[in-house]
Amino acid sequence: MISVHIILFDIDGTLTSKESTEAEELERFIRPVSETAGKVLSRERWRYDGMVDPEIYRLLLIESGMSPDSAMRSLPRVISRAEEIFLRMETRPVLNNGVGELLRVLSTCQNHRLGVLTGNLSAVAEEKLRLAGIRSYFAETFYSNGYFDRADLARDAVRACAKKYALRSNGEVVIVGDTPRDIEAANANQAKAVGVASGHYSVSELVQVGAAAAFRSLDPCRELLEALEVEVVKGL
Predict the structure, then answer these.
(1) pLDDT tens, position by position, 190-232
(2) Burial of 135: CB neighbours in 10 Å, binned 0-12, 13-18, 19+
(3) Is the CB of residue 194 less than 8 Å from the CB of residue 178?
(4) Interhelix angle 68-87/122-132, nearest 10 degrees
């Protein structure tokens, strides 16, 4: 029986450059919360890398002065407004180095299925993938709607893939991300964690938190393909 491997990619900082959407990202978080809370939030240095969107909005609402209960009651309205704001923006996500070529290579691998596992809300993620011109590569999509912890999102994604593709173990799912939270979520669910230092964290930092392998970019070198369980032709 041929073994199937599932590769799930994070979006921001992994597939796409964070710098290319930084202003729009900040706007879609700060603006709906400020509107709801009636208070302009500080645009200080971002500290929520790797977290899922609903949890970020919840924390920002609490930061604005709301009680935890009030924040949860306001969350659906804030999320709806955030999606509306993002979809009206002129966003231009740029692919990180090597991503286009890597996806083309992986799309020819018969034993691999590609997907995304992202902290983004579904409407936001779909728009980013569409604008970046890579939506067609992904058979599986796991978005953060309804989740407050990335490990829980990864758990359900790994379970869904294991059931759909009759995987022998969770280790046949590879989760690729640029933050410690991506790595930790993969390891918490016995998936294989591969890091890419194209965001705010270095190769050594990603390895230190448990990445099975980490790379400076997603340029499809031999070592990266091997980490993604791709059988590399001898001599490459």
Answers:
(1) 999 999 999 889 999 999 999 999 999 999 999 999 999 998 7
(2) middle
(3) no
(4) 30
The token pair that represents 168 in the structure block = 């022998």
Out of 3.40.50.1000, 3.90.230.10, 3.30.365.10, 3.30.420.40, select the CATH number for domain 5-18+94-227: 3.40.50.1000
Do 33 and 57 touch, CB atoms closer than 8 A?
yes
Residue 25's contacts (CB-CB under 8 Å, 6 or more residues apart) are 12, 18, 46
Query: Could you give the CA distance from residue 41 to residue 54 in angstroms, rounded to a whole number?
Result: 17
Instruction: Residue count of the chain, please give it.
Output: 236
Q: Do the beta carbons of residue 117 and residue 10 sit within 8 Å? A: yes
The amino acid present at 227, given as its one-letter code, is: A
d(C-alpha 170, C-alpha 155), whole Å:
10
- The Cα–Cα gap between 112 and 189 comes to 20
> Which residue type, as a one-letter code, is found at position 22?
E
